[in-house]
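Subject — a protein and its fold

Tokens — whole-number codes for backbone shape
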Amino acid sequence: MSQILTNQNPYQFMKIRFLFISFLVSLTVAHAQNNPFVYGDLLPDAPEMAARGQYGVGVQTLKLVNPNQLDVIHSKKGKDSLYNRPLTVEIWYPATVEKNQVQSIDYEEVMGTSNDPKRPLIPFKFKGRALRNAPSNKTDGPYPLVIVSHGYVGSRFLMTYLTENLASKGYVVVAIDHTESTFRDAASFASTLLNRPLDDLFVLKEMARLGNKDGKTFLAGLLNADNTALIGYSMGGYGALNATGAGFSPQAAVFFGQMASGSDALKVRTAGNEVYQSTLDPRIKAVVAFAPWGMERGVWDSTGLKGLTVPTFFVAGSQDDISGYEKGIKAIYNGAVNAERFMLTYANARHNVAPNPPPAESLAPGLPLDEYLRYAEPAWNERRINNINQHFVTVFLGIKLKGLDYHKYLEVKQDSNEATWKGFKPRTSVGLELRHAKP
């Protein structure tokens, strides 16, 4: 029929075609308005393993307390102060969701930084695809445990695109609000330097306790703490690496003492320290380190990096101006010679290779540009980065925690510009690099 219309009256055909396309556009716009993009949703060019899994996703909040911890902020030289360190965690898990229930949640977040008067705290909300307090689905459990650690400053909601996604694939995901290191309570950087690995290890022990099959919480019998991964971003990556064997250098201990009234507390976590070695937990089977901070500041040396033996997946931006690339993240990757390791690099990206996209509120006129740049990548679409991260973290943890045969997704040309990577749509695997090294 179109051929007849074209032959007899091309203008009529063009008019009908225009009206048809306009109709399709109006349907698409209406669909988008009724189904707004939620952090973690797939873009048309999302790689294969970014798609959500088979499970409904529940979410709950827990308040934990780590007793008798060093209060490095209020301690004075020669006189330590102790406190019961509070930690709020958000837990995403496989859940039973009825067909008539909508997986939707409002996360309450803030922009700004509590200790910066130029960046006052501004509350905002953003949506996720999970159901608050949904009953846990233990049919295929217990599930591997994943502990997520944000940057300085940040919060437990900084990577919901990834935490929800992993829960839908059969993981129990626990994201920590690191006290004195969040948007709401940012304090001395010394607390972050000391407490990151300690918080990770404490949360692992608590999850093992609460996940015991005889426990009294929703976690009872739901998780397998003997099969755990750590995911850390920036200072979260710093903590995750130290928690799994990358002992700090003597220079790091000196750096910490300069910030903490001469305290030598960080010496306990330096390479070769017997106390440090005794804290390493064999239940941690994998690490994902997004833009880990510290190498350019001398936090690690070759001796310390040799202590990392846990399989590790690094993610970096080639223009990272916070953690550094050649002398920062890439140097950590190269120095961790006793671990199987991968490094995914986003060409021309800076430091924000891990967080959610910028919230709409960050676009408001008059706000400091830093509120937007806390999330955004100048050369990349952050939603695109999120989808790529979902893909590769799914693959890596699937191999290391579930024994799934996803190796083909990692057996690709180092430079994505040379050939389309497995799992990527044609013409979409560009601007990426994936390195792989074994002990």
